[in-house]
Amino acid sequence: MKKIEAVIRKSKFEDVKIALSEVDIDWFSYWDITGLGKSLEEQVVRGQIFQSNYIQRRMISIVVRDVNVEKTVNAILESAWTGDPGDGKIFVYDIDDTYRIRNGESGPGALYNQESIEN
Amino acid sequence: MKKYIVSLLALFAFIGSTLSAQTTAIAAPKVDTGDTAWMIMSSALVLFMSIPALALFYGGLVRRKNVLNVFMQCMIIVAVISIEWIICGYSLSFGSSTGFLAPYIGGFHWAFLNNINVSDLSPYFISHSQLAADGSTVGTIPHLVFVMYQCMFAVITPALIIGAFAERINFKGFLIFTILWSVLIYNPVAHWVWSADGWLFKLGALDFAGGTVVHVNAGIAAIVTALMLGKRRDYKGHALPPHNITYVVMGAAMLWVGWFGFNAGSGLAADGLAANAFLVTHIAAATAALTWGILDWFNDGKPTIVGVSTGAVAGLVAITPAAGFVGVGGALAIGVLVSLICFGMVAFVKPKLGYDDSLDAFGVHGIGGIIGAILTGVFATPLVQSAYSGAIYGNGHQVVIQLIAVGATIVFSGIGTFILFKIVDKVFGLRASDKDEALGLDETQHGETAYTSFD
Questions:
Q1: Out of B295, B302, B347, whose CB is closest to A48?
Q2: Which of B8, B200, B299, B339 is buried most deeply by CB count within 10 Å?
Q3: Residue A21 parent element (H or E)
Q4: Distance from CA of B295 to the nearest CA of A (A)
Q5: Do B385 and B313 share a structural domain?
Q6: A2-111 domain in CATH 3.30.70.120?
Q7: ipTM score for this prediction
Q8: Residue A50: closest CA among chain B residues belongs to which residue?
Q9: pLDDT digit string, tens, across residues B366-393
C-alpha cells in the first residue's frame, strides 16, 4: 500500500478530481495549503497589484493498493499539468498497515469495499 | 371687603391671562417625541458603526494572528471613551468656557454631567432653530439624548485611527494614547466646529455630521501614527493580504447601515433635512462603491469585493460633512470624485511613498474626509437649507472657509498627535516588540487566538 500526496494548482483541482474518478479512485482527502517559495504570484488588494511569495495550492492525499499506484500517479501527472513552473509535486510513501474501523479488517483489503465491488 | 377681593381676583385673572397670552405667542420649546425616538435610534446606529461594524471591517483586513487585537481595540475604546465622555469629554466639547479660551475649548461646567437635568432640552439644534427664554438655541430632544448621541461620535473617531497602526502596536501604549488623544485632540476640534462658541462654527464652516471633526481629524492622526510607529516587520511596500474578506464585506455593509444614524441623525430631528441626509448618504455610498468597482475592473481586469466595500466606505466618509447641505446631484458628484481620488491614493500613491498605513485609515478616512469637506463648499445648495450655498451657486467664499477648517484641523491634529505620540512612546512604549509582532498580537497581548482547533 502506498500513500500518494500531491500539491496541485487550485485551478486544476476539478480536472484532477475527474481524472482520478475515471481511473476508479473514488475517495481521497484534500485541503488548501499556503507555502513560501521562490516564485511569485500576482495578488490584488484595493487596487494595488503586487507579487507575493505566499503561494496558494491544494494538497490531495490518497492511500491506494500497490496495483493502483501507477495509474493514480499518471492520472495526476496528466490532469494537473500546465507546463508552467509551479504545477506542483507528487510524493509517494509506504503505508505499513490499514485497518477498517467498522469490522477491524486489516491489510490492503481494508482499502476498498469488497462487498460491492469485484476487483 | 368682598368687593375688593373680587376685583383683586379679577385683576390677577387678567394679568394671568395676558401673561399666558405672551408665553403662547412664542411657542415654548418642548420635547418632540418623534425627534427623540429617532435620535435614540440614531445613537444606537452610530454605536453599531464602532462595534461590530468597524471591528469586522478592520478585523477582516488584518492577518489572522491579529484579528482579536483589532476587535479588542474597538471594544475597549467604546468602554473607555464613553466614560471619558461623561467625566469631561462632553463638557470640554460642547460646554462653554470664559475668556480667550472660549472659542477653542469648553469648560468643566458639565463635567460628570453636572448641571444637566433629565427634563432639560438639548442646547443645540441644527435643522429649525427654536429660542429659549434667554435667547439661546434649543432642540426638541432631551439634553441627555444629545450627550449620548455625541458620545458615540467621540467613540468612533479614535476607533478609526486603529486602521493606521494595526498589527504592530503595544496594547498598553495604545490605550493610554487613545484616551489622551480623545481628551486633547478630539474634544477641542469638536468644540471648534460644533459648539456655538467655536471659532470655526462662527466662521461659518459647514460640517454637518463630522467630516472635519471625525474623519479628517482621525485620518491625519492616522498618517502621523503610521509614520512614527514605522512599518510592520514584513511590510514590503504593498498591502498584506486580508485574512477574512467576508468580515470586511459584513463590516462595510454594517457601516453603511450605521451611517444613516450618523448622517440622518445629525440634524437632531426627524424632519425633511434628515430625509435629505438619508437620501444623499445612500446615493453617495452607492456611487462611490460602483466607481471603485469599475476602477478595479480597469486596473486588473476583475472587480474585487474588497474594492467595492472600500469604495462604499469612502463615499460615506465624503458625504458626511455634506449630507445636510447638498442635493442628490452633489451626492453623485462627491461619490464619483472620492472614489477616483482615494483609489489613486491607495493603489498608486501609497506604494510610491512607502509608508505603512496598514488598513488605509489615512487613504480612505483622511483623504475622503478632506475631499468631502472641500466639496461641501462647492456643492452646497440653498434648495436643502436656504441659508447655505456653495461655489456652484456663486458663493465661492464658502470653499475658502472649508479650506480654513480643513487646514486648521490638519495642523492641530497633526502637531498634537505628533507630540502625544512622542510622550506616550517615551513613557510607556508604543511599538510592540519584534517577536510579539511576529507571533501575532492576539497571542502576545491577550493570550487568546481567534481560530482555535478546539470544538
A1: B347
A2: B339
A3: helix A13-22
A4: 8
A5: yes
A6: yes
A7: 0.73
A8: B238
A9: 999 999 999 999 999 999 998 899 999 9
